Amino acid sequence: MKTYLMPALKLTLILIVILAGMYPLAIAGIGTFTKGNGNGETVQFKGRTVGYANIGQKFTKDEYFWSRPSAVDYKADASGGSNKAPANPDYIKDVEARIQNFLKHNPNITRAQIPAELVTASGSGLDPDLSPDGAKIQAARIANRRGLIEKDVLLLIDKNTEQPLWGMFGPAKVNVLKLNVALDELK
After folding, report:
1. 138-154 burial by CB neighbour count: b if 16+ within 10 A, else e?
2. What is the span of the domain harbouring residue 167?
């Protein structure tokens, strides 16, 4: 018994030191080299913090870009998806309601043009980004509501589009909060 117990206890202690001590410290150290020094990237507007770039926020006014829907109403402490299957009648009803709402506020768009990300919630419910297409589909509405030229809104989207890491890892994306702050700065 001693031949099995002592090596198991030693291995347990070594793994506790490595996995519960050294690894978290190493990750925290690496985090200090990221935007926000590991505390999350804050977004500033007129000298005050308006939110975090890595947490989705709710925008419903027609003069702003809308975020991806959230199954948890954008509550960071309740992160999670709806866990409803695509064939679930409640899920289908939710998606259909989002489609109808989007079409109501964007009358120049057809149902087939709506990107899925604008009517389906993300797995975390806190996705802060849209694809460039998800933002561009909203440009006409925003330009109309703000009295801007649609081309200028599209240029703003292009300017705020983050390309894939090293040109190959992940999709191009647009942070909705940063884009809406840039939109307010146009005035």
Report:
1. bbbbbbbebebeeeebb
2. 41-185
